[in-house]
Design goal:
Low-confidence stretches: 34-38
CATH superfamily of the largest domain: RlpA-like domain
Strand order of the largest sheet: 19-23-20-22-21-24
CATH topology of the largest domain: Barwin-like endoglucanases
Pfam family, one: 3D
Number of strands: 24
Shape: rod-shaped
Strand content: 35-45%
Order of helices and strands: HEEHEEEEHEEEEHEEEEEEEEEEEEEHE
GO biological process, one term: peptidoglycan turnover
Mean pLDDT: 85
Keywords: Membrane, Signal, Transmembrane, Transmembrane helix
Number of helices: 5
Protein name: DUF348 domain-containing protein
GO molecular function, one term: hydrolase activity, hydrolyzing O-glycosyl compounds
Radius of gyration: 64 Å
CATH architecture of the largest domain: Beta Barrel
Length: 401
């Protein structure tokens, strides 16, 4: 090939290369300009996701388009403001509160809720769970629920507490009697008794009774009754008694263990005793003398006699109303129609005394009467007609020796 031909060929190749480079440079330039223009037409948006802010550039028309463009998944429980169908405006801030699952346990029964709320009280209100002042909640109602995402609630119920003499209605969330007493701040003393087993489970409207038991020592002085000793006395009429010496009560100190339940004594046990003064025995003489009434042989005045005086005399029969037929001295007044007996005041004429009565004869003082006081006597006759005939008169009486 000639030199001219080679030169022309080289020149043509060089021109083609320069043209290609120019075209490529133009393409790059146009692309850069287009990219700059594209980027420059994007809107700047701040997305605040749970307190963390990030600036995003977008051509999205709506908030929902933005989340789709960026591949951000929104759950149905999330809260986005402004709403998803709001138009994108450059410089706007989009708040995205992401919901979380919270477990709520009420007396062991669990339920799960999705929420964007952070404060325990708001979460419970959103879940329509009511909490009273007596309930126990695992977190304070005005604080945020922690990373555990769990709220435990123990619902309170009413029951009756009887503590000794005091009875009242109380609220409790406890499950056993022991836990309940601890919750109420109740201290049990050594001998106190709870009317339920401490491990028993308590339920609404239940009743817990505490019996306050107290053991005390009581020392008291008490009297000791005296004994009565009887002695036979032949000088006294049978059935009569006479105190020879008066009895005196003794004194003893006794120590008791007293058990009280709710302040009331339920048991008293004698532990020891000490005699402080011995009792003195009472001695009583009991009469053994038997008086025998004799049949009178006449009513003439005896030749020899002792003291004599006048008395007012009436008459009675062994069959009078209220009469037993037996005299105060034990004489059977109905055994012999010829008995001569008079009722006397023993302070004037002692029972058993032999007497002579004017108009009646020899007799024995063998009876008494409620109306016979002082110098009065009542003579025994066998019929009411004889008594009426005798009437009331003043007669002379002699004490026979």
């Amino acid at each position: 090939m000639s030199k001219i031909s080679m030169k022309n060929l080289f020149s043509d190749s060089l021109r083609r290369k320069q043209t290609l480079v120019s075209v490529l440079s133009l393409v790059v330039f146009v692309s850069v300009i287009a990219f700059v223009i594209y980027q420059g037409t994007k809107s700047s948006v701040i997305v605040n996701a749970n307190g963390v802010e990030e600036e995003l550039l977008t051509h999205a028309k709506t908030v929902e388009d933005l989340f789709d463009e960026k591949g951000l998944e929104i759950s149905k429980y999330d809260k986005v403001t402004p709403s998803l169908n709001s138009e994108i405006v450059s410089g706007m801030t989009i708040n995205w509160e992401q919901a979380r699952e919270v477990t709520i346990s009420v007396d062991g029964n669990q339920s799960k809720v999705w929420t964007t709320e952070k404060i325990a009280k708001n979460i419970l209100e959103e879940a329509n769970i009511e909490v009273t002042e007596h309930d126990i909640v695992s977190v304070a109602l005005d604080t945020e629920v922690g990373e555990t995402n769990k709220i435990d609630i123990q619902k309170a119920f009413q029951l009756t507490l009887v503590d000794g003499k005091n009875k009242r209605q109380v609220w409790s969330t406890s499950t056993t009697v022991a836990n309940f007493l601890k919750q109420q701040g109740i201290q049990l003393n050594e001998f106190d008794r709870v009317e339920k087993d401490l491990e028993d489970v308590i339920t609404p409207d239940d009743k817990v009774t505490i019996v306050r038991v107290e053991k005390v020592t009581d020392v008291v002085e008490e009297s000791i009754d005296f004994a009565v000793e009887t002695k036979s006395d032949s000088s006294l009429l049978k059935g009569k008694e006479k105190v020879v010496s008066q009895g005196e009560k003794g004194k003893v100190s006794r120590t008791y263990e007293v058990i009280k339940e709710n302040g009331k004594v339920v048991e008293k046990v004698l532990k020891s005793e000490k005699v402080l003064k011995e009792p003195k025995t009472k001695v009583v003489a009991v009469g053994s003398k038997v008086v025998t009434a004799k049949v009178s042989r006449g009513s003439s005045e005896p030749a020899s006699s002792g003291k004599e005086f006048y008395v007012t005399a009436t008459a009675y029969t062994p069959y009078c109303e209220g009469c037993s037929g037996t005299s105060a001295a034990g004489i059977n007044l109905r055994s012999n129609s010829n008995l001569k007996v008079i009722a006397v005041d023993p302070n004037v004429i002692p029972l058993g005394t032999k007497v002579w009565v004017e108009g009646y004869g020899n007799a024995i003082a063998g009876d008494t009467g409620g109306a016979i006081k002082g110098k009065k006597i009542d003579i025994l006759v066998q019929s009411k007609s004889e008594a009426n005939k005798w009437g009331r008169k003043k007669v002379r009486i002699k004490i026979l020796k």
